[in-house]
Amino acid sequence: MTPSRRNLLVRAASTAAALAALAVPATSPAQPLPKLKVGLMLPYTGTFAALGNAIENGFRLQIAETGGKIAGREVEFFKVDDESDPSKATDNVNKLVKRDQVDVLVGTVHSGVAMAMAKVAKDSGTLLIVPNAGADAVTGAMCAPNIFRSSFSNWQPGYAMGEVVAKKGHKKVVTITWKYAAGDESVKGFKEAFEKGGGQVVKELSLPFPNVEFQALLTEIAAAKPDAVYTFFAGGGAVKFVKDYAAAGLKKNVPLYGAGFITDGTLEAQGDAADGLFTTLHYADSLGTPRDAAFRLAYAKAYKLQPDVYAVQGYDAAQILATGLTAVKGDISKKAEFAAAVEKAKIDSPRGPFSLSKAHNPVQDIYLRQVVGKENKLVGVASKALTDPARGCRM
Ligand code: BEZ
Prior knowledge:
six-stranded mixed β-sheet; Rossmann fold; alpha/beta; 12 helices; disordered N terminus; globular; binds benzoic acid; 2 domains; 21% strand; 14 strands
């Protein structure tokens, strides 16, 4: 044999040996997928801190109920306190996306912060599940195949309450809220339905987020003598607003209506000041379904706390993630298949089953509730299967 032929044979034999060493035998068990990296970006300080904690509790409860894994993958959490501060939002979300390289972002509460998250998610292609913030744009002009919401759009509870207040026969309403996307859009939704129903919003009052110096605005309401007031506040600000409204003597003369955040997770702190208030939301404390009863019991056992709407939204964010991830057998890179599975799913929520719209926002019943004792009691369904109009969404 010539030296060059022998060289060729030797090289071929060693290549075959190397390939054989690399080849996975047909019978070997599949390697477990690495831990799923979940980036929680939520407020853990400030006026929305309790909301962030409830969302995380709900999210973790759902995972615990499915054996501590999502679609068979163990979970590793990365957490950022976003402080409900839009000016820090892009840096904060990039800590999770660029530094920690998370597989999925879950957040947040504040609409302004959520819009920054949606921009980064859209640009980077990272999966984002929004477990509260109602910014209409997230499932409107900024909608994307990799962005989902387990909560609501700001338009939804506002629109439902506009119909309720018009049907009650009120004609002139003053609105009061924080001046930022959530407050503005909640009032806009209310006004759209209320004016369609024959009412008129005569004054729109606001103060910067998260200020709670309500006194001057309450004096303006008293002077305007409207038939009713519509409001959006949440968390610590909602507690103070409801107490101040009652203390100013307005509660007995000018009925107060609100998007349900005004009394959700706040009733212990509000005491008698909240008694009797009517609100609209996609959850209530007394739905009376076996699904909700099981959820409430499990939550109370796990955290020694009663759940609220934020806990439900966190729980359902995990359900949405599990639905998509199960369909792709844990392979989060299969984005189109993930989205297709979530789009056709019915999420078995404690609030009642819901599906997602084409823009990935819940299509859901909006309940009318009334505060009785320390509960947001169900009065009825204010708006059945209410679908956000998803204005500006091209998907
Ligand atoms: C928001 O900013 O979208 C929001 C905050 C708290 C409760 C509801 C909505």
